[in-house]
Amino acid sequence: MKKFTAFIAILLILTGCNGGLPSGNSADSSPAKLVSESAAAFEYTDSLELGGIIIEKYIGNNTAIIIPAEIDGKPVVAMGNSSYIEDLPDYHVSVFEHMESAGIDTFYDRDDWAMEVTESVFQTSMIAVELPDSMKIIGKAAFAANSSLKTVIIPNSVEFIAEFAFYNCTSLESVTIPGSVKTIGEGAFNNCRSLNTVIIENGVEHIGEDAFSSNTALTAVNLPDSIVYIGARAFFLCSQLTEISIPKNVSYIGASAFEQCKSIETVTIPGGVSVINSLTFRECEALTEVIISEGVTQIGNSAFYGCKSLTTIIIPDSVVEFGNFAFMSCSSLSDETIERIKELYEYDNLSMIFSA
């Protein structure tokens, strides 16, 4: 493995190949013009393990760029810290196959996310980036804390978006994640406070913990049928999200996945989700109706705590366990719903699950 750092002045080699951003991804009426960069604009590593180039740092001066598909005659396959990327055991499945058995809070202690931004490939003034069709991996914190980034074009060759990849990109307004991506990593789009639309194409399987949390402008996100895993706090505090359709193939929803999504009105839990984990829908204040499909067996602690508009819950016979405070402060529950809970609940102290 040999590392190259380019020293040639960028202004001497830029030849133009400029073009406007696609109108669908434009952040304003006069989008920045994309500049096709050359190898001289990057620090990079030639990776024998991946069979191509890993871009580690952008050292150019442009704010809207097209990353080349080849450097030194080899495909550009990844971006981010090369040591991290080459150590990935199998980025298609990552740790998701083992997380449920490990416990829902195993990966919770990530308080100092600010440390992750040191891995960022780009300076904070970058406005727009188009990735090449050769790209397979967007590495850890590759765009983290790029507060000016409004547009990123992710090709249908990317297979893995690593943890914190776009963390704290506070100007990013929309993103399309192609179906070639199997895993959206932990905190990948966390705290992207201007992000209002997310399109996830069919083929994506895993949404990691905190992947879209604290995106307070997010109003719409589609979850395709290929999704099987929604991590803890995946959409935590997406307070403007008005609708969420949980695909039928989902088998795991982590704790607090939709906590404080204060604008969601209805939700259906598919039968493949055996456990509605603790705090999953806590303080979803506009939620009025919940349909729980046959196959769900457990409703966790405080799962619907504070859903003050909730009137109707369809609960199947398969539910055999209610956690403490599961429906606490659900002050609008209909008499019919309360009677159904009493029918299923074996204990006398109903105050342990809701305020009767």
The percent of residues in helical segments reads under 10%
Please describe the biggest sheet, giving its number of strands, its sense, and whether it closes into a barrel: 11 strands, mixed
Please trace the helix and strand order, writing H or E for each element. EEEEEEEEHHEEEEEEEEEEEEEEEEEH
> Strand share of the residues?
15-25%
User: Over the alpha carbons, how many angstroms does the gyration radius reach?
Assistant: 22 Å
Shape: elongated
Which regions contain 5 or more consecutive residues with pLDDT less than 50?
A: 1-30, 91-116
Computed structural class: mainly beta
Taking all residues together, what is the mean pLDDT? 84
Q: Kindly, what is the distance between the CA atoms of the first and last residues, rounded to a whole number of angstroms? A: 66 Å
| Tally of helical runs | 3
Tell me the number of strands.
25
